[in-house]
């Protein structure tokens, strides 16, 4: 939905943010780490103590004037809320559509370069498998693209199985970064 109210009902229900972005808000980092995190924290913005900027808002805040961004949101109410959060921006296209299905038609982009961020809600049991299959299909269509997959590091076994499936695809030059 773009921006998440950290005092809102949804954030209060799980409290996940306390050990996530909540730790960033109160942590004092080593200067080298602080330098690496600076763009992310800057993109979070001044409201970071009350709101958390999700991937669509972060991406929009990092766009240059010549860039463009396409966001897909499947849930109708979330799509409407995302549209309100993102505002009018001629660099931006919002699609009320399943992102996995939309990906097939979005790659390769006309520019023949870019980044695809797959940031699912992890509401389905087979989300890792669906994400793996979507990446494989997209990569076959556009092997020169850059793909970034977001996943929660909650279930070490599920993550290990997912990583093993990715490695079996033999996609060259993969980088795995996990924040713990």
Order of helix and strand elements from N to C terminus: EHHHHEHEHEHEHEH
User: Helix fraction?
Assistant: 40-55%
Widest sheet: strand ordering: 1-2
Number of strands: 6
- Shape by Cα distribution: globular
Strand fraction band? 5-15%
Number of helical elements: 9
Structural class: alpha/beta
Question: Mean pLDDT score, rounded?
Answer: 89
Distance between the termini: 24 Å
Largest sheet: 2 strands, antiparallel
What's the structural blueprint in terms of helices and strands?
Layout: E1 3-5, H1 9-14, H2 16-19, H3 21-26, H4 31-44, E2 51-53, H5 55-62, E3 69-72, H6 76-86, E4 92-95, H7 99-106, E5 115-118, H8 127-141, E6 146-149, H9 156-168
Parallel strand pairs: 3-4, 5-6
Antiparallel strand pairs: 1-2
Helix pairs in contact: 7-8
Give a description of the structure.
- Helices cover 47% and strands 12% of the residues.
- The chain has helices at 9-14, 16-19, 21-26, 31-44, 55-62, 76-86, 99-106, 127-141, 156-168; strands spanning 3-5, 51-53, 69-72, 92-95, 115-118, 146-149.
- It contains nine helices and six strands, in the order βααααβαβαβαβαβα.
- It starts with a strand and ends in a 12-residue tail after the last helix.
- The strands form three sheets. It has a two-stranded antiparallel sheet with strand order 1-2. It has a two-stranded parallel sheet with strand order 3-4.
- The model has no long low-confidence stretch (mean pLDDT 89).
- The protein has 180 residues and is of the alpha/beta class.
- Helix 7 packs parallel to helix 8 (127-141).
């Amino acid at each position: 939905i773009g921006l998440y109210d950290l005092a809102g009902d949804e954030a209060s229900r799980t409290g996940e943010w306390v050990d996530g972005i909540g730790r960033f808000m109160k942590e004092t980092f080593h200067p080298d780490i602080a330098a690496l995190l600076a763009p992310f924290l800057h993109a979070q913005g001044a409201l970071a103590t009350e709101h958390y900027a999700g991937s669509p808002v972060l991406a929009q805040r990092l766009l240059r004037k010549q860039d463009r961004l396409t966001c897909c949101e499947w849930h109708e109410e979330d799509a409407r809320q995302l549209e309100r959060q993102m505002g009018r921006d001629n660099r931006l296209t919002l699609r009320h559509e399943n992102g996995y299905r939309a990906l097939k038609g979005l790659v390769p982009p006309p520019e023949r370069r870019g980044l695809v961020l797959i940031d699912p809600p992890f509401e389905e049991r087979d989300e890792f498998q669906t994400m793996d299959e979507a990446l494989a299909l997209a990569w076959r269509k556009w092997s020169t693209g850059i793909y970034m997959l977001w996943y929660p590091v909650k279930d070490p076994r599920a993550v290990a199985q997912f990583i093993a499936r990715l490695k079996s695809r033999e996609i060259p030059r993969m980088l795995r970064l996990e924040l713990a």
